[in-house]
Write a structure and sequence with these properties.
This protein is an all-beta fold. It has 1 helix and 20 strands. It has one helix at residues 305-309; strands spanning 2-10, 19-22, 25-29, 72-77, 85-97, 108-113, 116-122, 133-139, 157-162, 166-179, 195-200, 210-216, 219-235, 237-239, 242-244, 252-260, 268-272, 277-281, 287-292, 315-316. A 6-stranded mixed sheet has the order 2-3-1-10-5-8, with no helix packed on it. Strand 17 and strand 18 form a beta hairpin. The radius of gyration is 34 Å and the shape is rod-shaped. Mean pLDDT is 77; it is low at 2-55.
Length: 317
């Protein structure tokens, strides 16, 4: 799964253009105030807002507000792509208490989703003085008394309000959006090692069955080998602009049919090579290959791989 980080911030300094941080992270800051939401008194649960009949009169507050009785409200627009979801989010605010004689202990910070109140809390204590500034921080995966509200962000919006004698200096919403990986197996990978071409073979003489014990990363088993069914030659290769020479021209593989075995457990694996990344599911063992020497008796003579593959401008491995 791929993850993308979005930083949505409100400041009093201006709008910054989107900045590419890395292949999986985009950061930008916005000062655009979304304006009043289309809301009615009935959309606020009891206790979320003290004066629901005066919402329109108390709109809007600006950043670093100096006047009292002004309500601050902002809607963040979150970029959540198709099939993606918000997997983490945090809200950070800097606020200042307005008033002359006492702090606004009745001022509440609220979170909204589609104009529905989902969280409300008082932010000032009686012993704090007017003019006091503080930083507020909330993990939206664990909101006090509510729990996770991440699923409400998946529709692409998140709103906050703050009544009504508190100045908002800055607000930043940081979200992590998780999306399905379009290429879960990764791209082609250039793995070092010998290349082989494999040919069907017909043995001149029948081979006697041989019982051996074999072990690899999938397990250990006793199997019985039958006739040779494949001969693999070390091979040179040109792939795009890359050339690969033979590393050991004497080492071949002879592969034998496995005629008796216990059924191995089917496994899911991921493979990566110079051609692709892919997911595979294993089945029965088919062949067992042994390093072998080869001597030409009749037919085509060994070719000069060096001559056949020239010109090779760049040699790898």
């Amino acid at each position: 799964m791929k993850k993308y980080l979005l930083f949505l911030g409100i400041t009093a300094m201006g709008i910054a253009s989107p900045t590419l941080v890395n292949a999986q992270s985009v950061s930008y800051t916005s000062t655009q105030n979304s304006g009043p939401l289309s809301i009615t008194n009935s959309e606020f649960p009891p206790g979320v807002y003290d004066y629901p009949t005066q919402i329109s009169d108390r709109w809007p507050a600006t950043f670093n507000e100096t006047s009292t009785d002004r309500m601050f409200m902002h809607t963040f627009n979150i970029k959540v792509g198709k099939g993606c979801s918000v997997s983490a989010a945090s809200l950070n605010m800097k606020v200042t208490a307005l008033g002359k004689s006492e702090v606004p202990v009745n001022d509440k910070l609220g979170f909204l989703n589609n104009a529905q109140g989902i969280f409300s809390t008082s932010i000032w204590n009686q012993n704090e003085a007017p003019g006091t500034s503080k930083n507020l921080s909330y993990n939206l995966a664990s909101v006090p008394g509510v729990g996770s509200i991440l699923n409400t962000l998946n529709d692409g919006t998140f709103s906050i309000y703050l009544q009504d004698d508190t100045a908002v200096n800055s607000v930043t919403l940081r979200t992590t959006v998780t999306c399905p990986d379009p290429n879960p197996y990764g791209g082609p990978v250039d793995v070092k090692g010998e290349h082989f071409q494999c040919y069907d073979v017909k043995p001149a003489e029948k081979s006697k069955p041989v019982e051996i014990t074999i072990q690899d990363q999938f397990g250990r088993d006793k199997v019985v080998l039958g006739q040779p069914v494949m001969l693999c030659n070390p091979s040179a290769k040109i792939h795009g602009k890359k050339s690969y020479r033979i590393q050991n021209k004497e080492r071949h593989l002879v592969c034998y049919h496995i005629i008796k075995q216990r059924s191995p457990k089917s496994l899911k694996v991921q493979i990566n090579n110079q051609f692709e990344g892919n997911g595979l599911q294993t089945g029965e063992r088919q062949i067992f290959c042994a390093p072998s020497l080869k001597k030409h008796i009749t037919g085509a003579r060994p070719q000069s791989h060096e001559a056949a593959m020239k010109p090779i401008k760049k040699t790898l491995n």
